[in-house]
Inverse folding.
């Protein structure tokens, strides 16, 4: 079975509630801690668990962003075969008109999202 990171993150919070109250109850029965101190500890632990839970729910986005960043930095770091700043070679004088009629385009990564629709 597939478990989403959202449900895992929320599960961490509720399991933390159960653990803190169970252990806090044990300590209060043994007179090792009073209720006010237990609630202060509970707040600190629960807020920490909430942070961990929220972080877990963002892991898929983090993984996607990391992969995208790798591809962007690789693209930036590539050395092009054509040096656009070179003064060597011929530079033909170009004149003319260019027109587009009925141009349709979709990116291969998102074939169902039209970019140009009959331009």
């Amino acid at each position: 079975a597939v478990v989403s990171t959202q449900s895992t993150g929320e599960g961490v919070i509720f399991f933390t509630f159960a653990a803190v109250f169970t252990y806090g109850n044990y300590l209060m029965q043994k007179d090792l801690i009073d209720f006010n101190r237990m609630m202060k500890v509970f707040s600190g632990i629960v807020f920490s668990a909430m942070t961990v839970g929220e972080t877990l729910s963002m892991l898929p986005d983090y993984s996607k962003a990391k992969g995208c960043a790798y591809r962007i930095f690789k693209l930036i770091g590539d050395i092009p075969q054509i040096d656009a700043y070179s003064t060597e070679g011929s530079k033909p004088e170009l004149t003319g008109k260019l027109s587009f009629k009925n141009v349709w385009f979709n990116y291969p990564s998102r074939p169902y999202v039209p970019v140009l629709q009959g331009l």
User: Anything to note?
Assistant: DSSP finds three helices and two strands in the chain. Strands lie at 104-106, 114-117. The helical segments are 5-29, 35-57, 59-77.
